[in-house]
Amino acid sequence: MQVVLLGPPGVGKGTQGRRLAGDRGWALISTGEMLRDAISRATPLGMEAKKQMDHGLLVPDDVMIGLVRERTLEADALGGFVLDGFPRTVPQADALEAFLQERGRKLSVVVALTAPDEELVRRLSARWECPVCRRVYNAMSAPSKDGRHCDDHPETLLHQRDDDTVQTVKRRLEVYQKQTSPLVDHYRKRGLLKEVTGTGTLDDVHGALVAAVGG
Ligand code: AP5
Ligand code: MG
Prior knowledge:
By secondary structure, this protein is of the alpha/beta class. The chain has nine helices and seven strands, in the order E-H-E-H-H-H-E-H-E-H-E-E-H-H-E-H.
């Protein structure tokens, strides 16, 4: 299956996408993680993307489309994938549809996760991430065992993302409303959209997501 997770910053796309993909043996394709990896390796793509990401703005469509087109051709993605953070604009959605069609494939379902803005801001201010495996924790709702290190990398200190400052989170929410939220209607019109409430426990959201994805 080819699944898209759509939703604002902090709604749980990464957390839920990782679990769903892990359970089903699908690839998790997170464009945010791909860009953060490129930044940590100081590649030309990373250096360029960092300028937009630090301000909560989107990286240009052509760059993102090229990245995802290549990534979805890798062996681990051929049996299915979960897209987290792509598409984020109508041109990205059109490109995705076109390149899947070229390969005789199509999207199976698009799940829009929802949560109130106050909850998103609260979550992002308490988010901590492992710089090695990118596993995400939350100081309030999902802490690591000792609250400072990654459970899977006990030597590694967790860190906060550069774009999780109050001002950048506000900008990311605005950018989501303006550039990405039109995709909800875009996919509803195509009969691909399922809406899932992103609040409740991690298990609650996972259960609702599994029911929406089916299969
Ligand atoms: P990206 O990394 O995709 O960031 P985002 O969309 O802002 O989403 P987040 O990763 O912040 O949130 P999430 O929904 O994954 O939530 P999470 O699971 O972590 O993109 C970053 C940047 O890269 C963009 O701003 C842009 O510049 C660029 N970019 C990426 N893709 C692009 C594209 N396609 N085009 C152009 N530019 C692109 O959860 C959040 C927190 O909440 C965690 O602490 C978690 O533990 C906690 N949590 C999760 N679920 C629950 C729950 N049910 N209850 C309580 N806490 C919970
Ligand atoms: Mg994420």
